[in-house]
Amino acid sequence: VWYRVGSRNEVDGKSGIAHFVEHMLFKGTEKIAPEEYARIIRKHGGHANAFTSRDATVYHATMSRNTINMAIELEADRMVNARFRNKHFTPEKRVVQEERRMRTDARPKAMLAELTNSVTYSVHPYRRPVIGWPEDVRRMTLRDLKYFYRTYYSANNAFIVVAGDFDSTEILAQIRKHFGTIPRGPEVPPVEFTEPPQRGERRVLLKKQAELPALLMNYHVPSVAHDDSFALDILEIILSRGRTSRLYRNLVYHQRIAHSAWASYHRVSIDPSTFTIGAQAMPGKDTATLEAAIDEAVAGVRSKGVTKAELNKAKSQVAANFIFAQESNHGQAMRIGLYELTVGWRQMNEYLQGIQAVTSEDVKKVANHYLTPDRRTVGVLEPRPSKGS
Predict the structure, then answer these.
(1) pLDDT digits (tens, 9 = 90+) for 194-245
(2) pTM of this prediction?
(3) Would residue 22 show up in a list of annotated catalytic residues for this protein?
(4) Residue 63 to residues 42, 160, 336: CA-CA distances in angstroms?
(5) What are phi and psi of 65, to 5 degrees?
(6) DSSP track, 56-111
(7) What's the pLDDT score for residue 134?
(8) Which is the catalytic residue, given 10, 22, 114, 310?
(9) How many whole angstroms separate alpha carbon 82 and alpha carbon 284?
């Protein structure tokens, strides 16, 4: 069950509330005791979980065709009957705070990514971390969570994806039975923020206890709705996928200045996204050296483009990744859901055709248009010695 609500729908001062509500939906309803949902699923041989992203909150379960109706009934129940009680609220807040500490605060590179992202966007909600800023989570109230739940958890703000071995007539009957009587909720507040064009490089420095320096570069790029997204996908592969990629070959293998080097493109998102290039320095090397080497690698694509061999290999890798990601029922459901969330699920059927149409000139064009200093935010991690040293 996909809810069209994530950190993108939050407001300043309430960051992390979508993720917090996700946690609270496991605290029971009038029919189901706290944590009983997962126990019921496990008892019948299935497994279930949930996650929150910038664009969505998703509750998923994998079960046999003979028992999946249990998950359908449970999800419909908590869509409208979730209980928000004080006795669960305070302990769960501590759980969320500990999750943030373990995933972000205790990990220097994660903190660098969070800080760099917050500077990359000046007005758009993507600047806020999904898990929330520490002070926002600390100030969160039970009333805040109830209001958010009533606003966004409704049948008119959700869709269901089913993938696997099932009878369509049977499962649709179950979905209609349990979800069909749920009344429409309020109209969801639209997200009307448009990030203004960046007109100059931004830089941020994080000083934190860490073993090695690290560098991140976020470039503003379009997302899945734009035709350039296909060439950007290819560019990501050519720059960073595998030992023959340009960043690995130059920074890690030949120059030996980086412990690791990578690029990532968050293509399937509702609003324009980022193309990120990063590297972690080898001992004794600094981020200025990394930055110069990355700029050189990008400049090579911008001036000379990519070879036919690189292009064909990247196309094969992209196609393989796209196909292998759908080997499992869960993978298929995830892919369908992501496309339905953004541009409509039928668009996924045009993805491989779009990739095959990319030319070397297309890759060169997107590198020249998007990977420019004026469109980027550079984050630098400067290690500080541990307190005991």
Answers:
(1) 999 999 999 999 999 999 999 999 999 999 999 999 999 999 999 998 888 9
(2) 0.94
(3) yes
(4) 9, 15, 18
(5) -65, -20
(6) -EEEEEE--TTTHHHHHHHHHHHHHHB---HHHHHHHHHHHHHHHIIIIIT-HHHH
(7) 97
(8) 22
(9) 54
